[in-house]
């Protein structure tokens, strides 16, 4: 990696960090396609992005926990399904294929699907919350649904590095529509950290993490997230989220199906 490339990756981390700070979502869904555009192998892009997500969101957990904005019971329920599903997914990649080249198509398809699903979750999050409210009122919400949703997230995140933010938030809004927005975000971040760290360690075991790249991305993203959070107060949420959703949908179609 040349010094010019290192600076470029710092700037890339800053761009993604800024977007995350402004919109609250989009870390993995923007970073992985960006790394692919830089020419990194798909497996390295996914593995490095997972470790990047675990570090960047780690500080957020502490901040939200101090505000008592984390539902640890829901974090536990999601992790009950998510962590074993992540372990199984890593085992599939390790023992089901002889080399990373053989599972590139699988990761590409899952990545494309998850990007599209993430874009839909961003656009229809309020409708999902209303739908969840109807289910809750009808008594249809079951305790097993959260571990089941956690398992789905575990597979998607491990294969693609995408979904822990927007899809996780949509799930919480759907099944717990009365949960305050602050607690939705805090709970989602608290769940995303162990899941992305666990999945990232799995990819580290597979040899899919570039630590020099990871360091450059973090140098750019950590200060940019803070700046983005300040700018987010000035930019209407209704203006940013449709733009982000459109980008993710287009990238998802391109990565997954072409």
Keywords:
single chain; globular; about 0% strand; mainly alpha; about 260 residues; 11 helices
Notes on the protein architecture:
- With 258 residues, the protein is an all-alpha fold.
- It has one domain (3-257).
- It has helices at residues 3-23, 27-37, 42-66, 72-95, 100-123, 125-137, 145-160, 166-175, 181-206, 211-231, 237-257.
- Helix 2 runs antiparallel to helix 3 (42-66), helix 3 runs antiparallel to helix 9 and helix 3 packs across helix 10 (211-231).
- The longest helix is centred in the last third of the chain and has 26 residues, at 181-206.
- The radius of gyration is 17 Å and the shape is globular.
Give the N-terminus to C-terminus distance in angstroms: 29 Å
Number of distinct beta strands: 0
Order of helices and strands: HHHHHHHHHHH
Number of helices: 11
- The helix fraction, in percent, is over 70%
Largest sheet properties: none
Strand content: under 5%
Net shape: globular
- Structural category: mainly alpha
Rg computed from alpha carbons, rounded to a whole number of angstroms: 17 Å
- Runs with pLDDT <50, length 5+? none
The assembly state of the depicted protein chains is: single chain
User: How many domains in all?
Assistant: 1
The average pLDDT score comes to 81
Set down the secondary structure blueprint:
Blueprint lengths: L2 H21 L3 H11 L4 H25 L5 H24 L4 H24 L1 H13 L7 H16 L5 H10 L5 H26 L4 H21 L5 H21 L1
């Amino acid at each position: 990696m040349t010094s010019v490339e290192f600076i470029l990756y710092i700037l890339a981390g800053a761009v993604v960090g800024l977007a995350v700070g402004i919109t609250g979502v989009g870390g993995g869904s923007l970073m992985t396609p960006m790394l692919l555009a830089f020419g990194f192998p798909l497996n390295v892009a996914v593995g490095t992005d997972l470790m990047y997500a675990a570090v960047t969101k780690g500080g957020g957990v502490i901040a939200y926990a101090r505000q008592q904005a984390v539902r640890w019971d829901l974090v536990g329920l999601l992790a009950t399904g998510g962590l074993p599903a992540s372990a199984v997914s890593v085992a599939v990649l390790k023992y089901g294929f002889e080399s990373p080249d053989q599972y590139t198509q699988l990761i590409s398809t899952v990545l494309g699907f998850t990007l599209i699903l993430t874009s839909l979750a961003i656009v229809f999050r309020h409708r999902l919350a209303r739908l969840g409210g109807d289910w809750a009122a009808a008594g249809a919400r079951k305790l097993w649904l959260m571990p089941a949703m956690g398992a789905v997230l575990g597979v998607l995140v491990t294969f693609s590095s995408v979904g822990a933010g927007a899809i996780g938030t949509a799930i919480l809004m759907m099944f717990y529509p009365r949960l305050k927005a602050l607690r939705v975000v805090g709970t989602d971040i608290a769940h995303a950290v162990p899941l992305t760290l666990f999945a990232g360690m799995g990819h580290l075991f597979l040899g899919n993490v570039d630590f020099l790249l990871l360091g450059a991305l973090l140098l750019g993203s950590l200060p940019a997230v803070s700046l983005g959070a300040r700018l987010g107060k000035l930019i209407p949420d209704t203006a940013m989220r449709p733009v982000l959703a459109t980008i993710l949908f287009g990238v998802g179609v391109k990565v997954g199906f072409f």
